[in-house]
Amino acid sequence: MPEIPADDEDEASMAEKSGLYDVQTNPDGAAGPWRRLLMTLPAEDHSVRLARHATHLVLTAWRLAHVENTAVLLVSELVTNAVRHARGSDAVEVDLHATRTWLRIEIQDTDRRWPRPRIPDGSDESGFGLVLVDALAAKWGVRETEAGKAVWAELDTGQGPAPRT
User: Fold this and answer.
1) Distance CA 141, CA 137 (A)
2) N or C: which end of the chain has fewer CB within 10 A?
3) Which are the contacts of 61, defined by CB distance < 8 A and separation ≥ 6?
């Protein structure tokens, strides 16, 4: 386990015990520390709030405050899309995976239909979700899963906040 300053031991210990932090081989085979939060939520409106709150808590524990606002917005948009548009889904799966250099946000549902990005016109009150995802994420996409699909977005976490002058 990496060295942790004494004043941070309690927070790090809680995160490790809860499964939020683990030092092992990354799923893609690269060695190094990585963190993962995986949760299944009902495909209901209140799950968007739960996903946002969990994202806020875990990114604070992971010391990724510099990407927290953007990540919470991406989670909110992607979970909202899954809840509103995924036909036949009883649940959505929220998967946050962080390494030293990136955070991957992945939302899975059981609908096999892929989202169709569109450019909303000025009078639309909705339809901006994937436009926001495209603008905020370093990269994003969709992949097939056994049960349906996963929409994912990645943020660069390698850059911390700008130094104060």
Assistant:
1) 10
2) C
3) 11, 14, 15, 20, 21
Residues in the chain, overall count: 165
Here the tokens at position 121 are 């016109």
Annotate the chain with DSSP letters as a single string: -----GGGHHHHHHHHHTTS-EEEE-TTS-EEEEEEEEEEEESSTHHHHHHHHHHHHHHHHTT-HHHHHHHHHHHHHHHHHHHHH-TT-SEEEEEEEE-SSEEEEEEEES--PPP------TT-SS--HHHHHHHH-SEEEEEE-SSSEEEEEEEE-SS-PPPP-
Domains (range + CATH), the chain: 32-156 (3.30.565.10)
* pTM of the predicted structure, to 2 decimals: 0.74
| Structure-token pair, residue 34 | 């990585």
Q: Which among 69, 67, 77, 74 has a CA at the least distance from the CA of 156?
A: 67
